[in-house]
Amino acid sequence: MKVTLNTxxxxxxxxxxxxxxxxxxxxxxxxxxxEDYEKSTGEEMEFDLVSxxxxxxxxxxxxxxxxxxxxxxxxxxxxxxxxFDSDEFDDAIREYITDHCTLIEFDGGIIxxxx
Length: 115
Hints:
By secondary structure, this protein is mainly alpha-helical. The chain has one domain. The protein is 53% helix and 11% strand. A three-stranded antiparallel beta sheet has the order 1-3-2, with helices on both faces. Strand 2 and strand 3 form a beta hairpin. Helix 1 packs across helix 2 and helix 4 crosses helix 6. It is elongated, with a radius of gyration of 16 Å. It starts with 6 loop residues before the first helix and ends with a strand. The relative contact order is 0.16. The model has no long low-confidence stretch (mean pLDDT 89).
């Protein structure tokens, strides 16, 4: 027996999971990403809430992600905190993430794949 979920149903399940940190907007962006991935590979995915929760995390911003992953994010990414430029810093973080894993940006935050 197989049940096919639409984007909203996937987002509802992800955002209502009490053990995850997905907002509805983040969950919806992740659902769209997973659907696009399915289409690009031509293989159907089985919805596994626990696996998705373990593989992806949501952050409110690129800078929140950087501070969560580096003890001193500015220095780790080659910036001097005194000459801090938020846009350049965001670009450096974006580049770092996309070089190492999946980055999903949406209005209100980002989703990254764990690495």
